[in-house]
Prior knowledge:
13% strand, rod-shaped, alpha/beta, five-stranded mixed sheet, single chain
Amino acid sequence: xxxxxxxxxxxxxYRITGDRYPRMRRPRxxxxxxxxxxxxxxxxxxxxxxxLQLIDVFGxxxxxxxxxxxxxxxxxxxxxxxxxxxxxxxxxxxPGTLTVNxxxxxxxxxxxxxxxxxxxxxxxxxxxxxxxxxxxxxxxxGAGILLGPTAAVNGPLKVLATQLAGAEQKTDGRKGAELDxxxxxxxxxxxxxxxxxxxxxxxxxxxxxxxxxxTC
Length: 216
């Protein structure tokens, strides 16, 4: 009896038949394959991105993009300009540096002297006092006229105007720096010392320039 014959089979022999046999294969590591593919794809992506960056740098795209960004934030078309310092505005002269001639163009007597005395108390220097020249005598309907050289427009005339509200300011071809205050028919009195001082303080206050962006 063969050792392959199971007990109780009457001594019959059996043999295994068939032409197919199971093959012993090693299990596939699918996870490792997937990770390898992902790593390869990432590496290729990085290489491609780096190539595009080099093309942008040497091809000028980066400069174009920066110019577009500057144009978005800068109102002058993207051109960067440096902030320039603005020179301080010239301070108006003090009343004590101004000489004022006071003339009366009305029919009321004593206005020129009384007005001149009050201006002197407020620090102005007084020149001539009397009746107005023929070109203005009895011809001023308003409160008065302030007359001076062309150079006095932005300084001395404005300072004198703080003392007489509503006065008209004019210039002529005089060579000297003296100012004329010509009293008109609507004149009642000079501005109160408090109102004049307030107007003078506003005139001496420096104007504030709007801030500019240093990057534009």
